[in-house]
Amino acid sequence: MIYSYQDQGVGAFFALSTDYTNEQEQFQQQPNLISIHWNRGDKPISLNVDGVDLELQPHQITTTTFLQHLDVKQSQPDLATFTFNREFYCINDHDHETSCNGVIFFGNLQPPITTISPEEQIKFNMLHEVFLEECKTRDTIQGEMLRILLKRLIIKITRLANDQSPHPNLPEGQRDTIRKFNVLVDIHYKEKRSVQDYADLLFKSPKTLSNLFAKYQQESPLQIIHERIVLEVKRQLLYTSKSTKEIAHELGFNDVGSLHRLFKRLVGQTPQQFKGKNQELTDQER
User: Fold this and answer.
1) CB atoms within 10 A of CB 245
2) What is the pLDDT of residues 106-152, one digit of tens each?
3) Full-prediction pTM beyond 0.85?
4) Quick check: helix, strand or coil at residue 284?
């Protein structure tokens, strides 16, 4: 069932779906949605994000944004989803409150997965029940109450994600630098392709960034920039009819050959080979 809230005046939209796989088509009418997907059942749930298969285990949460393409091929009645747009709650404007950007939203080359520990499951289930109760309450402060609950949910997931990161004891300042770098790449990858560009935005030197990422066994800053570009090429090849030349132009490449070489170096295939192989797999599934 879908419980939704809308404020037509500012275009705000929030919805809680208790069976997202059977209700996802109803969300396609709303643009620029951000979603939190929670496997509340006791069996794994199969998802596909940007052409990559993902298995969400019981009591795990993942997120998607309007930049990603989510496909749920089979009925998964235990997949609960909280969906909202920027007008309802802007995670960028409120990042100082939640510090979720680059942890559970945006800045992630792979869909982030957070596991709800047994001791936290009761708390999350209680929060889910409060959401349902508030969704059924129609009054002038419903929107504000739902925003407060959403903020609480985001903070709880972000805390778990930080605790489950490969470096949970990473000093907050250094964690924040890595997080902000990833978000900035997600925002500016089309026009900024050097580490120096992002070092300037963060008021750091390129060497400081490279040393920080190496210290905590992260991919290098330049590798992250390149992988973000390639990820966008993949999305465009899979979900649009644009040619490689059109994609290269959209991503700021004056020479399509440069994009070809970058893509083949990271993927091991040319863009045409990648698209052809995935088209064959899609045809076989049909």
Assistant:
1) 12
2) 888 788 999 999 999 999 999 999 999 999 998 999 999 999 999 99
3) yes
4) helix
What is 172-285's CATH superfamily? Answer: Homeodomain-like (1.10.10.60)
125 close to 78: Cβ distance less than 8 angstroms: no
**Model confidence pLDDT, tens digit, residues 225-237:** 999 999 999 999 9
DSSP per-residue codes, 211-254: HHHHHTTPPPHHHHHHHHHHHHHHHHHHHS---HHHHHHHTT-S
What whole-number distance in Å separates Cα of residue 244 and Cα of residue 249?
Answer: 9
The domain limits of the chain are: 2-163, 172-285
Measured CA to CA, the distance from residue 127 to residue 121 in angstroms comes to 10
The type of residue at 130 is V
Look at domain 2-163 and name its CATH class.
Answer: mainly beta
Average pLDDT over residues 60-84: 87
Q: How far is CA 23 from CA 32, 39, 85, 165, 196, in A?
A: 17, 15, 17, 32, 44
Count of all residues that appear for the chain in the document = 286
